[in-house]
Amino acid sequence: MTSLQSILIAILQGATELFPVSSLGHAVVVPAVLKSGIDQNAPEFLPFLVMLHVGTAAALLAYFWRDWWALATGVLGIGDKFDVSEARRVFLLVVIATIPAVIVGFALEKMLKHLFGAPLYVAGFLILNGFVLLIGEFLRGKGNSPVSSLTKLDALVIGIFQCLALVPGISRSGSTIVGGLLRGIDHEGSAHFSFLIATPIIIGATVLEVPKLLHEQVPHGVFAMSAIAAAVAGVTAFLSTWFLMRYFKNQDSWALTPFAIYCFVAGGAAIGYLKFAV
Question: pTM of the prediction?
Answer without folding.
Answer: 0.90
